[in-house]
Amino acid sequence: MKLAECFDLSGKTAVVTGAAGLLGRQHCRALAEAGARVVATDLDPVACAEVAEELGTGALGFAADVTDPDSLRALAGEVLRRTGRLDILVNNAAINDRVENPATAMELSRFENYPLALWKRCLEVNVTGVFLCSQILGAEMARVGRGSIINVGSTYGVVAPDQSLYRDPEGRQRFYKSAVYPTAKGAVLAFTRFLAAYWGPAGVRVNALSPGGVENHQEEYFIAEYARRTPLKRMAAPSDFMGALIFLASDASAYVTGANLLVDGGFTVV
């Protein structure tokens, strides 16, 4: 096989969860450009349809809740009915802290005060959601003896949050990165290793892609400080993960499973 053919996803079906988000849209675009038929799934059916329309090339939009087994079974059935196969699953759906309201951020984000309801909700989506999507959609891959599952991790699944990044230029802590997000992403990495070992004999590869921080209209001081402590001296652009995603999805990584591919500008090496 020629090198270019290794990255070709023509004829394959790829499901991307959290497809309407910033990175989800880029993941969908990358897979479509590599030749895959993309199924964009998220909670909002209108947003899913919009993503599919933007992609063209036979892309489909189908709403699903990653925490609801019945919803995911319906998704799997629709994918197989419409495309006849399921080759790639990108477990991208996740939620992050939502306590950055200036009026409440400091107190709510402290570990001592962090609300149990937020802890449970994040674990439900970020960990249980990955488990259920892999169990229900990945089972079809294992049945036919092929497939690639890519779980989206985070640098904070590898290293602890640097709380100093969330201090303004006057040295005031605006909020704290909570314990739940790194806990959830660490669990995703452990689950990736488990599933790679479990489904390896069935021909299903399971890897993680861990992005660094993505620039997305954050405060200027945060962008500057994040860039300062990152060897490549910038935050990521949403497009920076496209190549890594296609590598893990395609035959270019045919002998790679159980890995965590860090695309973080070197953030975790310092």
TrEMBL record:
<dbReference type="Pfam" id="PF00106">
    <property type="entry name" value="adh_short"/>
</dbReference>
<dbReference type="Pfam" id="PF13561">
    <property type="entry name" value="adh_short_C2"/>
</dbReference>
<dbReference type="InterPro" id="IPR036291">
    <property type="entry name" value="NAD(P)-bd_dom_sf"/>
</dbReference>
<dbReference type="InterPro" id="IPR020904">
    <property type="entry name" value="Sc_DH/Rdtase_CS"/>
</dbReference>
<keyword id="KW-0560">Oxidoreductase</keyword>
<comment type="similarity">
    <text>Belongs to the short-chain dehydrogenases/reductases (SDR) family.</text>
</comment>
<dbReference type="InterPro" id="IPR002347">
    <property type="entry name" value="SDR_fam"/>
</dbReference>
<protein>
    <submittedName>
        <fullName>Short-chain dehydrogenase</fullName>
    </submittedName>
</protein>
